[in-house]
Design goal:
Number of strands: 20
Radius of gyration: 22 Å
Helix content: 25-40%
Number of helices: 13
Amino acid sequence: MTDQPARPTHRHRKPSVRRRRTALGALFGLLLIGLIAGTGLAGDQEDAAPRAERTNAAALPFDLPAAEVLRDSPHLVFAHYFPPYPLSLDNQPAEHDYYARNYLTPQGEKGKHAAYGGLLRDRPLPVPPSSGDWQLANLEREVRTARDAGLDGFTVDILSLTGSNRQRVDMLLRAAQRVDPGFRIALMPDMTSLHTDPVTLADQLARLAASPSAYRLADGRLVVSPFKAEAQDPAWWGQVIARLRDHGIGTALVPVFLDFRANAERFAPISHAFSSWGNRSYTRQNNVPGDIQLAHSLGKKWMQAVSVQDTRPNQGVYDEAGNTATLRSTWNHAISDGADWVQLTTWNDYSEGSQFAPSLHNGHTYLDISSYYLTRFKTGVWPRIVRDTVYVTSRVQFTDVGSASLQPRLMRPRPGTASPRDQVELLTFLTAPATVSARVGTVPHTYRAPAGAYVQDLPLRPGRTEAVVRRAGDAVAAVTTRFPARRTVTVQDLQYYAVSSGR
């Protein structure tokens, strides 16, 4: 592959990247080598070596129900798959692959991202180069990861009808069929980037629908879930549905809106279900109950957006996610307000900093936490905690950073988002009450945590955070953040980083 992969199409929502001492590019290479080899760097350097991987079952604080139990539920959970960011773009070693050379450095892609410090702040958890059809093999790996976390499938973003992003959609359908015929791929035309006519779009959807993995309802209708559906009016979508009917394909339209309330009634006659892309601030979820109620009053199912965070350096904005507050709030709304389906937004859109997929900076943490809520959403019962586990989330820099030496244009909070905060969050899942001892930088903290899920916020300080859970004098869980928080930075990175004592 050349140094020119298919460009990500930057939707109304796009982009992000991590603070990077790229003047010391060799350091990044060493860190990634350490990550893959399972070794770290000594001293005050960022330790990118994660804990040794355990089986998915042993990593979670609870026992995930069997796949057949989860799939027996009428409640479905998808993750939004964004084709521009697969596990690898060029099958090269992670320390000098396309992500490292061009996306994670301000100087990458001939400096086109220099104003905002580079395109990405995080990347997929690196995988070693492989022989044969490595692209298909990597997509199969992602399908397995999602399936093993309890997900029903992906909603795949169709950014274009030709080129490498479209080819990855085809390959993702093949990968799902090879790994697990029960794993569903819902087709999501992206109407911020597709500028085509209804006949052409329908003909392309019909080609994709030939795959057994393309998601169909029990009655055989193909699920088509366009992003920003309101970019075209209902009559236009009626033409798409009619053309698909000419191909012998019935359609279940599940539009994803940017403005649901303004479009619900006019799209109701042609829709099977509704969804909204949602909001990424934990303080702005109060509309969810009303949205779900409106959808149900119109006789439609509702697919609720569940998200972690959103940081977009190239757009100059970020949302205050409140550590895992947005993640927990959006999941709780899906559960308590009666959502029928869930869409994790997103699986792997690293340019928005919204990824659930295992990544360099977060490991499996956000996906593991979601599996807990997913189990409740699907089974109606909160899973029993059987393994003491602590998750720590924090930023690696402070929100009041006034400058970044390699980034001329800084991000600002999105209007209306929660107030920016500098906190470390300890999210514990305990089999019984225990004492938690934490050290944030040089500042010690001790508190008593109850059984079950419990959140404790502590002020962020420079340095790493350590947390140890003790019961009857014995340490039952412990974790240390792998990246220290610093006040002086080269690139602005306001994503929350995460670690788990379970992995």
